[in-house]
Amino acid sequence: MFGRKKSAESSGSTAVGARTTADPAVPTDRGGQPRDGRAPDGKKGRPTPTRKEQEAARRRPLIPEDRKAAKAESKIAERERRAQAQAGMAAGDERYLGPRDAGPQRRFARDWVDSRFNIGEYVLIFLLLILVLMFLPVQSVAITLIWIVYGYIILCVIDAIIMSNRLHAALRRKFGTVQRGTRWYAAMRTFTMRRMRLPKPQVRRGERPE
């Protein structure tokens, strides 16, 4: 009688222990260990993190810690991109040209202008020289210089008209049609000094484009 009671108590304690070990409320890993970091004896294997430590772990920096270094790197990269774009535009690379300069007809027009001697390309130097000479106290000299300026400007316009007419005929022969504004684009280039033109000249004087 007493043996049966002892046996029942022993089996009951074993069942309670089994339920405690396999309690579904406590998640376990594949090895049967609790996932909350508890040791098999029910104790945690590490100290509980404080609230400040938990908040610090969740924080992520929105900007780099070294903002000065990041800003300096950004400036260097932007400077390199700008220099590359300027070099490409000066060389006539189509990837870096704007709508005004892009296209095969505009390239042909630039080469046509750069291959010839243009009277108007020295207009800036000529006008600056005349401006200085007009301050001379002699009135007759000033009047003469004014007439010289008028005559020079007329020659520049005539030369630009002749050039644009010949360019127009060459464009029709090569492309069949003429892009709108190409003649004016070429005429304005004749009034710019050769070394100051953008894109830079790609042909020598006398080397007509084909």
SSE map:
Layout: H1 2-21, H2 51-58, H3 67-90, H4 104-114, H5 123-133, H6 139-175, H7 182-190
Task: Describe what this molecule looks like in 3D.
The protein has helices spanning 2-21, 51-58, 67-90, 104-114, 123-133, 139-175, 182-190. The protein has 210 residues and is mainly alpha-helical. α6 runs antiparallel to α7. The chain is elongated.
Provide keyphrases for this structure.
210 residues; mainly alpha
* Rg of Cα set: 43 Å
Uncertain segments of ≥5 residues (pLDDT<50)?
1-24
Percent strand equals: under 5%
The first-to-last residue Cα distance is 122 Å
In N-to-C order, the SSE pattern is: HHHHHHH
Provide a concise account of the structure shown.
The protein is mainly α and 210 residues long.
